[in-house]
Amino acid sequence: MKAVCYADKLFRKMTNLSTLAREVLQKNDRGGYTVPRPGLYPFQWNWDSSFVSLGFAVIDESRAWEELETLFKGQWANGMVPHIVFHKDDDSYSPGPGQWGAHNGSGLNTSAISNPPVAGISVKRLLKDAEDQDFARRKAAGLFPKLYAWHKWFHEVRDPEGTGLVMTYHPWETGRDNSHDWKSLLPRVPLDNLRPYKRKDTEHVDADQRPDKSEYDAFMALVQFFRDHGFDEAYFYENSPFKIADTTINFILAKADLDLIWVAEHLDADKYAAEIAQLKAWHKVSLKGLERLWDAEQGAYTPLDMKTGKHVKGISSGTFLSFLADLDHKDREHRQIEILESWHEKGLLVPSYDPEHADFEPQRYWMGPVWTVVNYLIYEGLNSCGYDEMARKVAVDTMIALKKGSVSEYFNPLTAEGLGGKDFSWTSALWLYWLAPLQDNLAADYSARVQMFE
Ligand code: GLC
């Protein structure tokens, strides 16, 4: 009897979360694109919009496609899709268009770095699930050449020697801004020419939930470095003081390549034969490159510091995106599952940094908190590799985070407290797209696990 009452209460709360999530997407919608959170992030962010499009798919399929179409308006002539598109001015965020000093060649101000290429994954999902298949095929056909050009840019411009690993020159590109992965690398960024700048993020969120000053100095110095060298990719490849092969970008790209192949075959395998062949060739080389991310010493996939050729030390949530790339190494997968099992005993999955490590900070941004978007990708990867039970644990824990911490930017894995920006777009989108449909199925596991956080 008690269980029934509890489930009923749970259902009501979850229904409210769905209402809230819809309201947040509407509130953050700027007409054709969605800001992650007004004030804190007042422009269009690349991988945010890719997740947001999935949330809109639940509400209005045509608006879902529009989110991606608007993002691709910011694409550069060389194929790069920037991590921020500044459709309008707004001085509540820094660095804004004035500091980046970059544009896409047709009048739109943008940042000069990219983001994990989630858009291809989203397009496959939108197309596969579409109620109106003709409409979705037209939309996907419009986006495909742009997506292809973006992947080409990653594989050719960011991996000019064809090693199978794409390079990254700024932590913001990985989406995991102040991850522990970069802690030992950022002090190398020279600060001698750092021009004065004013932080805006700490006007919106407590400083102890954001990157610290030394990290921010390095972030800004890199932005200035890009601008001072005319956004010359060949120059960065040789000279960037920060040069890494990141887990997030490389694993997501491998999965997105496969999803683009699916899209092209679904649309017209003959018409896109050349693109399909090229995507398959890139993917084959990537599979070789991804092997180099395995750090046997730590028993985990970790980013490579390309300045020294060594793996970064410590285990972050990016490790588990390897499931998404389906590398088919059962022994390694089991080792990753063991790590997740032990983290599960400490708190909510998946903390952005190892909760057993002295540097773990449960409230600080990418140094410990749980992020819904990373959990969603890990969940998809675990399921596709057959680890259904662990996937379920990740879904249950994310549900606890959102139900206790609302649709916040990120969550404390030890308490489930919501942190960072409130009423966040991508968290809302993934509630609607991923978690809300699972609520009945997960109710029993949820009730058992949530007690740990009461
Ligand atoms: C922060 C996150 C990044 C995200 C952006 C907008 O910079 O680290 O991943 O894209 O906010 O939400």
3D structure, described in words:
This protein is mainly alpha-helical. Helix content is 53%, strand content 5%. It is built from 18 helices and eleven strands. The protein has helices at 2-28, 46-59, 61-72, 97-100, 119-129, 133-157, 171-174, 201-204, 213-228, 233-239, 247-268, 273-291, 322-325, 330-346, 372-384, 388-405, 425-435, 439-450; strands spanning 44-45, 84-86, 102-103, 109-110, 244-245, 294-295, 300-301, 304-305, 310-311, 410-411, 418-419. The strands form four sheets. Strands 1-2-4-3 form a four-stranded antiparallel β-sheet. A hairpin with a 4-residue loop joins strand 8 and strand 9 (310-311). Helix 1 (2-28) crosses helix 18, helix 2 runs antiparallel to helix 3 (61-72) and helix 2 runs parallel beside helix 5 (119-129). Mean pLDDT is 96; it is low at 1-8. The protein binds alpha-D-glucopyranose.
Summary?
The chain is mainly α and 454 residues long.
Low-confidence stretches: 1-8
- Beta-strand fraction estimate: 5-15%
One letter per element, helices H and strands E, the order comes to HEHHEHEEHHHHHHEHHEEEEHHHHEEHH
Gap between N and C termini, in Å? 21 Å
- Radius of gyration (CA) equals 21 Å
Rounded mean pLDDT is 96
Helix/strand structural class: mainly alpha
Helix content: 40-55%
Strand order of the largest sheet: 1-2-4-3
From the spread of the alpha carbons, the general shape counts as: globular
